[in-house]
Amino acid sequence: MEGAALREPAQRVSPRARLMWLLGAVVQGAWLLVLVALGGWLWHWFPLPWWVFAALAAVVAAYVVVMPTWRYRTHRWEVTDTAVYTQTGWWSRERRIAPMSRIQTVDHAEGAVARLFGLASVTVTTASSAGALEISGLDRDRARRLVDELTLKADAVAGDAT
Amino acid sequence: MSELAHDEQWQRLDARMLLVHPIREVLRFLPFVIGLLFAGTATGNGDLPWQLLGVGVPVTLGVLRYVTTSFRIAEGRIELRRGLLNRHLLSTPLDRVRTVDLTSSAIHRVLGLATVRVGTASASQEDRLDLDALQVGRARRLREELLHVAPSADDPTDDQIGDSTDDRDVVTPDRAEVVLALDPAWVRFAPLTSSGLVIAAGVLGATSQLMNTLGLWDRIGTGEIVRGTSGLSWWTVVPVGIVALVVLVSLLSVGGYLVANWGFALRHVGGAWHLTRGLLTTRETSLDDERVAGVSVCEPLGLRAAGGGRVAAIVTGLDRRQQGSAVLVPPAPREVVLRVARDVLGSAGPVDAPLTGHGPRARRRRFTRALAPAAAVLLAALLLVTVAGAPTWLVPVAALGLPVGLLLAIDRTRGLGHALVDGHLVSRSGSLDRHRHALDTGHVIGWTFRSTWPQRRAGLTTLAATTAGGKQKVSVLDVPADEATRLAADAVPGLVEQFTVCLADRTPATRGSRRR
Lengths: 162, 516
Description:
By secondary structure, chain A is of the alpha+beta class. Chain A contains four helices and eight strands; from the N terminus they run ββααββββαββα. Chain A has two domains: 12-72; 76-156, PH-domain like, CATH 2.30.29.30.
């Protein structure tokens, strides 16, 4: 096979995942700013010029605005008859491929925040502890259908998956 | 009647285990007795009854453990029952058995016992199935049968099992052809490995603790030593101290090497590799051929400089904590290392074949990654000297980092390479800790393409083949992206291709072969 490049997986996660990530980023950023403000001005742990605080606030704001969209663009997945393919990360991008015949477990998880948005994540593991594939931010029903589909396909292939 | 049929009823471990715990406790008590004789006055006579209680309690626990532990092999499962208050029942299907280890501590050996450790695919520490202990001959027969059953568990009443009741019919590893036997001259490699240093540090720590217990530090009188040497200048004391330390550490690591690897032998018989080693505690490990997914030839800088290396097997069903039992060759001369690696893989290609380099962009990345931290340290030193008024000798010391980084980058570039030979994915990388991994492509259970932002800009990616053994993956560091895709597609046909696009549609800037 000469001159071919890996493409992105075809499917995106649920658009609502952006809201979930946005909420997470807002909460985290607010915590950070409140702690820094308290430590600097109220409790005087360290000198805090106003412009440092402003710069930090700007960074947090940029993260809150950019991250959900960026992550939505990069977190992708695809399932074919013979393999599962996922892509995650934006600074360090990771693409993982697992053959259907090597799948050992398929996990369906709904975190507390994810349930607010009707979302769920699906984790596919193989016999290697280095190779788990996680698709987070899937629509709950889509995730359930995906789990059923993967379980059926994985069962259809013989072998003990090591 | 076969060993397995004979084991169908619940039964206890060997009764001689009742002796092991008392002996172990008495040995632990020994330093105190010696201290008593040595010091005369002892560290406190009032402690004696308490010390005896300290012996009595573990002995009682040992008896209880013996009475409450039993095991059986029935209905295609091996089951271990233990515990007085919390009853445990461990049960594993025989066809899940991956490895069988026999371990005998010095006490076990005197009593003719061996601990049987049954390794399954489960990685959980709590599910470990240890039979501590059985009579050695019985333990060996049990191992034979567990491993014979394991590959084809469909029919446990198979003929080959029925034959092996008689001792003479059992194919013991001792009769097989020896692939590797330890040459005592190899101890010269011991001080060059980091594990040698760790062993030395451990022995030094234990010795100082023992001396503390016996109150020997006070008798030696550290104060007198300091006073006695105070007349000498630092220029004498420091080099002498360093030489003494080097000699001491070397001696200890040589001792550690001999204790761990005495009688090391690697044999192949009955579709499995058998490892035996140990001076005081002996270990016998059996690795089923099916489970050996590949080998790693390790050449840390020190060993490489002395013309040595070592080999570890990539074994599925052994987790990280058990990696020690996958050592196929302890530190040994390079030709021995390569010969055993070829034997285990059954072909010379993955060990000897020239590797494809990763090209100029990977080389540039080696240099930036090695030199940038060195330059940063130098810059920081310059700043400290000029701005903060630190002593000027800081600058030349910091500047030493640059040539070291340069040499490291050159060596790392030279080491980088990969190949696909005789059905094995081969990858080599590293300088201080150089590895050449060869992984059977049949044991590749997934791919990971990892690239950071700078890597993507350079068109490079780190390809990892995940597997169920060893470090769980074999990485090909900083390989050009299209070469990574090609390699993955060639190694496991029909998997990666469905996710690729033809590169001809793209800009020609991302193309180009980088074979050297």
